Input
Amino acid sequence: MRRLRDQNRVDKRQCRVLTSGPVALTRVNHCVRMFYLILIALAAAALYYFYRTSRNKLGLTGQSQNSETKSSLTIENVRPGGAVQLKGVGDEMADFDVVVKARHIYVEDGFVWYELEGEKGLDPVWIEIEEDDALELSVCLKKLKLSEIGITGSDIEAIETADKGTLEFEDSRFIFEDCGDARFFRNGDRSGSGERFRYWDFETKDGARYLTIERWGAKEYVAYLSEPLRPGQIDVYSLS
Output
């Protein structure tokens, strides 16, 4: 027992030496290093969480902006400088790109409709946009003289007087629908009174073709052969 007690006293002295010497300092330094490593790890985790959260928020915002931008890419919003593609146009069901050069306004008794004037290569293209109860679109296929249709201004006025009549052109019969007076505002500039003209609208029985005749001034007649467009036939590349 005495030997055992002596041994215990030796062990206690050794413990006191160990806790008060260089080894103790080493242990303290180790603990300090561990403490700083833990802090660094926590800081890194916090930064990573902040980064992921910020990126997700930015991603959602970008998606929202992209969605809004896409929803605004409609033919009604196209302005000069915009570009669109028309698909399945005319008898040949042609696809072609149009660069918009101007956006004109027509007004008749408070009703407003629009015309996009553009180019398909070197050829002019006119797209008419009406927004009444529903969106109505049409594209001009040809600009014509009355002589090409085989009629005169007097023939048109006689149809108006009778309030009925038909025209024959390119193996199609066009039925008189309506006539009226409207004003044209070039490039959408409504600062003035616009240019006044009279128009006569004709349409095939199936609604597949339109023939519009306009009189500018006293004797200047021009005709347009058009067909309706569906929104699905139009891809808008850019608004302006």
